[in-house]
Amino acid sequence: MAATITEKIFSRTCGKDVHAGDVMMVPVDGAMIHDITGPLAIRVFQQMGGKQVFDPERVIMLFDHQVPADSIPAAENQAYMRQFAREQGIHNYDIHEGVCHQVVMEKGRAGPGEIVVGTDSHTCTYGAAGAFATGIGSTDMGFVLRFGALYFRVPETIRIEVNGEFAPFVGAKDLILAITGDIGADGATYKALEFGGETIAAMSMAGRMTCCNMAIEMGAKAGLVPPDARTWKYMEESRAVSPFRLLSDADAEFCEVREYDAADLVPKVAVPHNVDHVVDVTEVAGTRVDQVFIGSCTNGRYEDFFAAAEVLGDRSFSPDVRVIMIPASREEYLKVLRAGLIERFVEAGALVEAPCCGPCMGGSFGLLAPGEVSLSTSNRNFRGRQGSTGAEVYLSSPATAAASAIAGEICDPREVG
Amino acid sequence: MRVWKFGDDIDTDAIIPGRFLTIYDPGELARHVFEGTRDDFAAQAAPGDVIVAGRNFGCGSSREHAPLALKGAGIEMVIARSFARIFYRNAINTGLLPLICEEADTIEEGSEVRIDLEEGVIEAAGRRCSIEPVPGFFREIADAGGLVAWARTLEEVELCTGSRS
Questions:
Q1: A interface test, pick of B90, B157, B158, B163 with most A CB neighbours within 10 Å
Q2: SS3 category, A233
Q3: Residue B97 belongs to what domain range?
Q4: Domains, chain A
Q5: What is the ipTM of this complex?
Q6: Beta-carbon separation of B164 and A22 below 8 A
C-alpha cells in the first residue's frame, strides 16, 4: 500500500505496515531534554518508578535557555540535571555546545528514518535530517526515559511542493513565513508537513532546518524533508549512516497538497502578535525598531549570519537599535568567527553573544520594555514573548533583520542590499 | 463554576511567561498565570472555575508549566473549540481535562456552567452544548488521573500494538 515518509518511518520502526490514524506505543531512537523542561521530566521519571533510563546512549541533555545560569533557581536546575546525567551515564553537553536543536543535528543525534523526541516544541527541526521528530511535554518525556517508548498517533501528511528559484534576498525563512500565513497557526494540528520539490532539493541543510523548525507554528507534529545526497553528506560529518531510500510513494495519500513558486516570493514579515499574521515586508516598512535579534534555532546558523553580513557590507547598524546576534552553536559560532564576520558585526555596533536561546525565550536577557518594538529572526512573536506584554515582536529573515537594523526601521533588504 | 472566557490562539507564553520557567510548583506558578495578559485571573480564579476558549488553545511552547499553572489556580477543565497538540497531551498527562466543544464561543464570560461528563454536555445560561468525547487511549490516562498514575501500574510496555483513531 502506498505510504508517506511518516508512515514509512513508523512502519520501519514497528516492523509492520502502519498507517495514518494508527495509535500505538512506539520505541524512540533518541530523546533530548534541556534546562527548562528537563528537571520536571527527571522528577516524573522517578515518580513513575524509574531507576535507570531506558538507554543512556539514546538520551542527551544540554542547557541553552538560561545560560550561563542567569539566576539561582536556574543554577539549581542545571546542577540537578548535571547530577542526574552523571548518575545515569547520559551525555550532557551542558552549556558548551549551544541551542538544543542545532546541537542535536550537528552531533548526529537525529538521522533519516529515526523517531526522535525532545522536550521542546521546535524538536520538529530534525525533520531536516529525514527524522520524524516531535516536541513533547515533560511528563511524556518522563515516560520515555522510563520505557524508551511513547504513544503516538501516526499523523496524516500535508505535502508542500516548492519549485522555482528564490529572488535575491529571499530565502527559506520567507518561504516558511509565507506557508505559515497560508496554513494558519492551527492549520496543520496533529499533522506532518512534508517539504519537497526542486527548491527544497536545492536548499541547504540550514534552510531545511529553518523550514522544519517552524512546522510547529502551524500546529504540526513534525516537519520532514526527504533525505537526499545533501542529507547523507551532512550526516557523515557526525556519524556513519548508510544511505537508503526514504520517499513518499507517488500515490501516497496526502490530506492536502500545496504548491509554491519560490520565484513569486518576496521578503515576508510576521506582525504582532501571531506567527500566522504574515505580510510582505513592504506593508510594514518604516516601522521603528528598538531591538533586532539575529539568532535562534530558526536562523542562527553561519548561512544566516552570512546573509546578514552581505546586506550590511561596510555600513554600521543604527545607533538607535540594540542589535543582538547569537550563533546557535559553538560550531556555527566558530564558522562565523573564522569568516571574520564577528569582527565586522561588532565594528558595525552589534552585541555578539555566546550560543544560547537569548531573547527568543523572553526569560533570560535582551527583554523588551512596554512600547518597544523588536524584529527577530526567531520563530514566535506572541504577546510578551520577548519581555513586556506591552512590547511588539516582528519576525523576519536574517537579511530583512540586518537591513532593518541598519535603517532603524523595518526595511526591505532589496532596497538596502 | 464560573467561566473565564478567552479567545483564539491562547499561547503557552500567555498562560505562563518565559521568565517563570524555573518554577515547577503548581501553587507558585499559579501566582503568575496569565501575568501581563489577564492580571485579574491569578487573583480571582477560584477552585472549580473553568476556562472557555476559542480555537488552538495552548499553542506554542511545550512547557508543561502551562497546565500546571492552571491546575495550581484550581482550574480542572479547559473547554475550547480546539487545542494545540502538545498542550492537549500535557493537559491529559497532568490531570487537567481538555474538553472540545464546537460551540464554546457561545458560552459567556462570568456565566455559571454545569458540566456533565457522563452525558457529554455543558449547560450555560439554560443552553446545552455537546462536548466531544475524549479519545479512547487519552481517556484511560485521564481516568487514571494522569500519565504518572497510569504508568506506575506498568512494568513494561507492549510495543507497536494499538488501535485506529
A1: B157
A2: helix
A3: 3-152
A4: 5-261 (3.30.499.10), 268-412 (3.30.499.10)
A5: 0.96
A6: yes
